[in-house]
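Cast an eye over this sequence plus C-alpha cells and explain the fold to me:
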Amino acid sequence: MVSRSAAFLNREFRRIKENTSFSVGLVDGNIYTWEIIILGPEDSLYENGLFKAIMVFPEKYPDSPPKFKFISEMWHPNIDKEGNVCISILHEPGDDAYGYESVSERWMPVRNPESVIISITSLLDCPNTDSPANIDAAREYRDAREIYNRKVRRLTQKTLE
C-alpha cells in the first residue's frame, strides 16, 4: 500500500516535470529524495546558472516541510556554507518561538514542491539579510556589494563548467 505522503509526492512529481525554469528527477528512484536543477533567474547575478540541489521529503509530508540543500557551491545570505536554505516556508508549522515569523509564513500542508522551488529561486535574487544563514555573505551583501557580486558571478559561471 502506498503511503499518503508517497501518493502526494507521486502526483506532484508528475505535475512538476512540465516546468521550464527547473528540472526534477528522483535520486535512486526514491520518491522522497528529488534532485533539482534550477535555472538562475533572469536579470539576476545567478542568470543562466544551473544550480543543483536536493530536496528531501519526510514521511510526514505534506504535514511537515521538506529539507532543501544546494549541491552547487553557493554564496548567499540565506544559504549556509553547507548549502542548506533558510527560508520561512521550510520551517515547521506553528508559532515561531522567537516571534520573527507569522504562522502564515511557515510551512503549511497546502504548499507544494513547486511553490518551494519558486520561492527559493526568488530568494536567490532577493535575499533576506535580516535573517541570514550565512552571516559573512549577508555582511558582504550589505557592506561590499561589488565583492559579493563578483563572487556570485564566479560561482554562477562555475555551474556551467
Q: What stands out?
A: The radius of gyration is 16 Å. The helical segments are 4-16, 113-125, 135-143, 145-158. The mean pLDDT is 92. The first helix runs from residue 4 to 16.
